[in-house]
Amino acid sequence: MPYMSTVMTWQTNSTDSAATEQLGQLLAKHLSGGEVIELRSDLGGGKTTFVRGLVQGLGSNDIVSSPTFTINKIYKAKNGLEIHHFDFYRLNEPGIIADQLAESLNNPKVITVIEWSDIVKDVLPEDRLAIEFKPVNLREEERQITISYPESHTAIVKSVENGWIEIKP
Asked: What are the boundaries of each domain within the chain?
């Protein structure tokens, strides 16, 4: 579903994997459950690294790995929250996984993270954060990160932006 409301963006750079993870941790501090995060990049673009930081920032000790072969992974966090991490890279159609995704999207105790979301675009809510990772020049680990968000998420993104300015590597 395309965004119907005004979409705003915030852009920054991450110098390496540690910084990408740190940005994920910073975002996690401002999530309370029910949020939907769409991650976009090429293979090896930093999506799983970002999720690792997000999961750590939510107080989980779970080990994060890409769900490319398992399609989805669930991480337990503090305060009864869960992170449901979906990866549709290997699928031509969502099938039964679309039902699991719909359950996650409707659960206020779940933060839903989706990679390779093209085949489930019609299921995703407008009210989501879309985070895109693009390589920068010839530096292998540096990424330009763009967060697109609706007005309803302005406070979250502004808090992340302010926190990033203070700690930016």
From this structure: 7-167
pLDDT per residue rounded down to tens, the chain (169 residues) = 444 468 899 999 998 999 999 999 999 999 999 999 999 988 778 899 999 999 999 999 888 877 655 578 899 998 899 999 988 876 666 666 677 777 888 899 999 999 888 877 878 888 999 999 998 877 777 889 999 999 999 999 999 999 998 876 5
- Greatest distance between any 2 Cα atoms in the chain: 44
CA distances from 7 to 2, 37, 73, 79, 116 (A): 10, 14, 29, 30, 20
Residue at token pair 């659960």: 107
In the chain, where does DSSP find H-type helix?
17-28, 47-57, 97-105, 154-167
Q: What is the CATH number of domain 7-167?
A: 3.40.50.300
69: Cα within 13 Å, side-chain hemisphere: 1
